[in-house]
Amino acid sequence: MFKSGLFSEPNLVGGAFPRPERLIRNRPLTATQAPVLNLSAGTFSAVVSLVKRVKSVLWCVFCFSAATGSPAASIGTNPPALSLTTKRIAALPEEQRADWRAYLRRSTRQLASDKNFLRTEEQKAGITNLTIPPSANSVRGLALDKPADWYGQAAACHIADIIVSFQTPAGGWSKNLNLTRSARVPGESFAPDNLPRRSSKVDYDEPSDTNWDYVGTFDNDATTTELRFLAKVIAAVGTNNASYRAALQRGLDYIFAAQYPNGGWPQVWPLQGGYHDGITYNDDAVLNVVELLRDVAGGTNEFAFVPAKTRAQAATSLKRGLDCVLATQVVVDGHRTAWCQQYDALTLRPASARNYEMPALASSESADLMSFLMQLPDPDANVVAAVHAAATWFEQTKIMNKSYRFVRGRGRQLADAPGNGPLWARYYEIGTNRPVFGDRDRSIHDDVNEISQERRNGYAWFRDSPEGSLEQYALWRRSHPP
After folding, report:
1. Are residues 15 and 146 in the same domain?
2. Structure confidence at residue 266 (pLDDT)
3. Residues 255-288: pLDDT tens digits?
4. Tally of domains in the chain
5. Does pLDDT of 455 surpass 80?
6. Which of 274, 281, 305, 349 is the most exposed place for a label (fewest CB within 10 A)?
7. Which residues contact 433 (CB under 8 A, 6 or more apart)?
8. Of 326, 344, 312, residue with least CA distance to 384
9. Is 11 among the catalytic positions?
């Protein structure tokens, strides 16, 4: 379990995000907070002069905020995530270094091989400008809920052929690909345009290589969805599926290769650097992988054809992944709480992602992880304790009598709504459980109405989905009492 007290950086725990060098909070003191001052005439004059100067500074800040549309109030700044590097590995205990060095070498070699593959295709085809494939919203079009016989029909096989064509040399898939139009041609990129749509001076989402972004990822349901679709087609078409079987095996090998020595998975593999190297629960990236491994290991439904050797390998990988999930449940003052969206791969400390995604407890991902743990057929004492603790945390952090809705002329706002709820904030500060919110300028706030309208409208800052997990828990705990 991750213990909050293990932070070497005290500014990340217990109500203390890294503060800006200069921070002006425009919150009035209450009557009980305001100090009573007894000043001499000279001191009083100096104070008056100081107050005038402060008012001038505040007016400048107000004018700047009005001009830029960015709020002045902030409780801290979101720090950048750290990449996995040889230098950081060298700081590990000696007994851990060999495995991590081997992992990083494997990733580096695979990245070079993948890029060389595409470069060779371009040279053979005489291509000078890289062709970018069409994009789609996540993996829409890869239906996983059709009748079993549909996956043996021409429409499904057409999609399966496209899926195989866009599989990266490493064995994974990019995100946001349109896999229903046409197959990839030699020299075409393996990824659509996944560059950030809004660029800022400091953008944690800006790739170091703009021509190589998310080439092989678990983000936005990528890779796991393609593998599930291929499995359904393989099960439906019978013996004439050698290319599909080979692609599925390569995809599973990709998952095995991408798994960290501690059992977690990065968002992108081969490693891309930055927050993409973090163990990623955001958008259920790791959860999708362990759920897939669970089904492969069990040989259930469309995975019945998977060879015993691969199923055994999936079971081992699943066990390591589950151990990582349990190890990353945040412990505060000796009590387990919930999970964060990202963790540093080496230290298992909560880490940031995009500018507005800070190291904090994440309600939606935590609810999904708790539900997964409750689905385990024979949970051990560690799993049972993790579930009970998460459920307790959800009860402690639920928000009642509020709604997050559009207000004309002001965008989405948190407003009073008697009788409404429960809701949960997307993020909670570790140690205090106060809701926190981020903006594109990396500022962190404790009031969602303080962040820019663009971020208020463009991000799901409140969810009600944990309520379903708590309903599931009410039934589960009957068989697994605290």
Report:
1. no
2. 98
3. 999 999 999 999 999 999 999 999 999 999 999 9
4. 2
5. yes
6. 305
7. 337, 361, 393, 396, 397
8. 326
9. no
Assign 25 a pLDDT band (cuts: 50, 70, 90): very low
- β-sheet bridge partners, residue 268: 217
Catalytic residue among 194, 220, 262, 288: 220
- pLDDT of 200 reads 65
Residue 55 lies in a domain: no
Decide if 220 is catalytic.
yes
b/e per residue, 321-347, with b = 16+ CB within 10 A? Answer: bbebbbbbbbebeeebbbbbbbbbbbb
Host domain of residue 197: 82-277+282-327
The pLDDT, as a whole number, for residue 140 is: 67
Q: Kindly state whether residues 247 and 151 are assigned to the same domain.
A: yes
- Looking at the domain assignment, is residue 50 inside a domain? no
Given a cut of 90, whether residue 303 has pLDDT beyond it is: yes
Q: What is the CATH number of the domain that holds 252?
A: 1.50.10.20
What DSSP character marks residue 153? Answer: S
List 354, 412, 426, 440, catalytic entry: 354
Three-class secondary structure of residue 427 per DSSP: strand
267 and 339 in a single domain? The answer is no
pLDDT value at position 364? Answer: 97
Q: Are residues 88 and 187 in the same domain?
A: yes
